[in-house]
Design goal:
Layout lengths: L8 H5 L13 H14 L2 E2 L11 E2 L5 H7 L7 H15 L1 H4 L3 H19 L7 H13 L3 H13 L9 H22 L5 H28 L7 H6 L4 H5 L5 H22 L16 H13 L16 H11 L3
Antiparallel strand pairs: 1-2
Helix pairs in contact: 2-3, 2-4, 2-7, 4-7, 4-9, 6-7, 6-8, 8-9, 9-10, 10-13, 10-14, 13-14
InterPro entries: Isoprenoid_synthase_dom_sf, Squ/phyt_synthse
Family: Belongs to the NDUFAF6 family.
GO biological process, one term: mitochondrial respiratory chain complex I assembly
Length: 326
């Protein structure tokens, strides 16, 4: 078999385990599947499967996570991609189902997968097999996986956050839990790193909510905290019609400011965080860039410039990694 680096995805997937479960996949093909799932897109359950029997990979899902994962120590990369692939699988459920019942079934599937992994009987599915290897290699904590599943399941209710604290709680249970798992992959057990991870995860969850607002608005959905909207006299309809009035921008300012506060708190632990923890915190590069860009457009969340991909992101991540700062 040719080296994985020389394979295109369809060729690698010929050997990959199908979701119906055959045991013919090589470890290299499973790793390639996870990597491509993170880099290239989500699994679409609404389109026919590929000729190789696996679900089709469609739109980009976690390209920024893909780039930052490449800067982990080489011995950790496959585990990090497995964790990120698991997160992609869960994060795409809400947008890909038309009925909550179907979403609940998919969440239950992944809950059963994690139970089976920790019972040492992983299903023959690429992400599950790679997660099983990561759990065994790094003694990953089951609670973090379950917390991610539980809160993403609750989020299927499709309701706006009642207040900023509710958004922060969701971010802590999903994004921060993901970072805790990456710290375990890196072998970091440090209370200061955990505190930084908590705040970075909250900042990331808040920024993700802001970045997704234009997309959600086109689907007549608004998830921004209700209490902040009411404070500024802004209705959901204002966001749905793409209003760029000052009171709408004031809502965005308040929400973005909370993300900035969490980043500052995370950095207050910098001197006490072990250097080997820093790869898990590289997402701060993305958060910094978004918060700076939205400030420059006066907190107009619908400004076209905010939707452009950062062509210098890989370079910025490398520099931050080389400096060992976050």
């Amino acid at each position: 078999m040719a080296p994985v680096s020389g394979l295109r995805l369809p060729r690698a997937l010929r050997a990959a385990t199908s979701l119906r479960g055959t045991s013919t996949a090589t470890a290299a093909a499973r790793q390639q599947y996870c990597l491509q799932l993170v880099r290239s897109g989500q699994v679409s359950h609404c389109t026919p499967p590929s000729a190789h029997g696996l679900p089709r990979l469609t739109r980009n899902r976690d390209y920024e996570g893909f780039l930052s994962s490449l800067l982990f120590p080489s011995e950790s990369c496959s585990s990090v991609f497995a964790i990120r692939a698991f997160n992609v699988e869960l994060s795409q459920v809400k947008d890909s189902v038309s009925q909550k019942t179907i979403g609940l079934m998919r969440m239950q599937f992944w809950r059963k997968v994690i139970e089976d992994i920790y019972s040492d009987i992983p299903p023959q599915q690429p992400v599950a097999m790679e997660l099983w290897k990561a759990v065994k290699r790094h003694k990953l904590t089951k609670r973090w996986f379950m917390r991610i599943i539980d809160d993403r399941e609750k989020n299927l209710d499709d309701k706006a956050y009642r207040n900023i604290q509710e958004l922060e709680s969701y971010a802590e249970n999903t994004q921060s839990s993901l970072i805790y798992l990456m710290l375990e992959v890196l072998g970091v057990k440090n209370v200061h790193a955990d505190h930084a991870a908590s705040h970075i995860g909250k900042a990331q969850g808040i920024v993700t909510c802001l970045r997704a607002t234009p997309y959600h608005s086109t689907r007549r959905k608004v998830y921004l905290p209700v209490d902040i909207c009411l404070l500024h006299g802004v209705s959901q309809e204002d966001f749905i019609r793409g209003s760029r009035e000052k009171n709408v921008r004031d809502v965005i300012f308040d929400v973005a400011s909370q993300a900035h506060v969490h980043l500052q708190h995370a950095r207050s632990f910098c001197k006490d965080v072990p250097l080997k923890a820093h790869p898990a915190f590289l997402q701060t590069v993305v958060l910094d860039r978004y918060l700076n860009r939205i400030r420059k457009v006066d907190f107009d969340v619908f400004h076209p410039s905010l939707q452009k991909r950062n062509s210098m992101l890989s370079f910025s991540l490398y520099i931050r990694s080389w400096k060992k700062t976050y």
